[in-house]
Known about the structure:
Elements: E1 6-10, H1 16-25, E2 31-35, H2 47-63, E3 68-71, H3 74-87, E4 92-93, H4 96-106, E5 111-116, H5 118-123, H6 125-133, E6 138-143, H7 147-151, H8 159-174, E7 179-183, H9 191-198, E8 203-205, H10 208-222, E9 234-238, H11 242-253, E10 260-262, H12 265-272
Helix pairs in contact: 1-10, 2-3, 2-12, 4-6, 8-9
The site of D-glutamic acid has 17 residues, from helix 3.
Amino acid sequence: MDTRPIGVFDSGMGGLTVLHECLVTLPQEDYVYLGDGARLPYGPRPLDEIRRFAAEIAGYLESLGVKLVVAACNSATAAALPDLQRRLSVPVVGVLAPEAHAAVLATRNRRIGLLATEATVASGRYAELVHALDAGAEVVPVACPRLVPLIEGDDPFGEETAEAVREYAAPLREAGVDTVILGCTHYPLIRPVLQRVFGRGVTLVFSAEETAREVAELLERRGIGNGEGREGGCRFLTTGDTALFREMGRRFLQLPIASVERVELAALEAAAA
Length: 273
Ligand code: DGL
């Protein structure tokens, strides 16, 4: 039995979709969630900058004594997963591979759409992962720079979000994809909007549940799970506004968040040094 917490991080609220699935699958574990609100969004940033941020955060979480780190951010996974796995002594789980696998299993016409941040699209990682499983599958990527700021904004379920989703979905509908990878952990927060725009004929692939399954398997195989029958707790950290995080976190996670601690960027930078 290993009582150390699991570290989960994202640029903001998106990783809460992964945390939620981990809470469903592994309720006995304790979690430390870090949202990098001060530097959100990651999507428009160059990959090497995102790689630096991810190294800082993962290093910081490791210094808090976590037993495993979940990079609950597609942009950070796309930019930094191998680097994080080399740097850290604890296992690091990302969110891309489980989705690529699920998409290849789901598609019937082998045309797979991808909605993701600019950074994730630029990395080309999804196409590599899909082609490693099915070299004949086609991946049609669409970068969605407006979505994360809208989801983290004042009116995530408003007309502007619906309009942006329609705009980003249009090229995928034209390309006749039957499966769409939602390649950003923020997107499940607007899942009903996406489902209405794509309709029933298109399978939407989310990473959160698959990622939670991978975490559970890793804990089991390494023998580092916490004792069953207990209810774990969550500690929330942000580099941004703590009151805002608490409010939005409650709304998206539908979980009472008693307190949110602020982490200074200098503390993160020191952790990567
Ligand atoms: N939720 C993130 C992702 O999965 C970050 C998006 C952003 O900060 O732009 O890519």
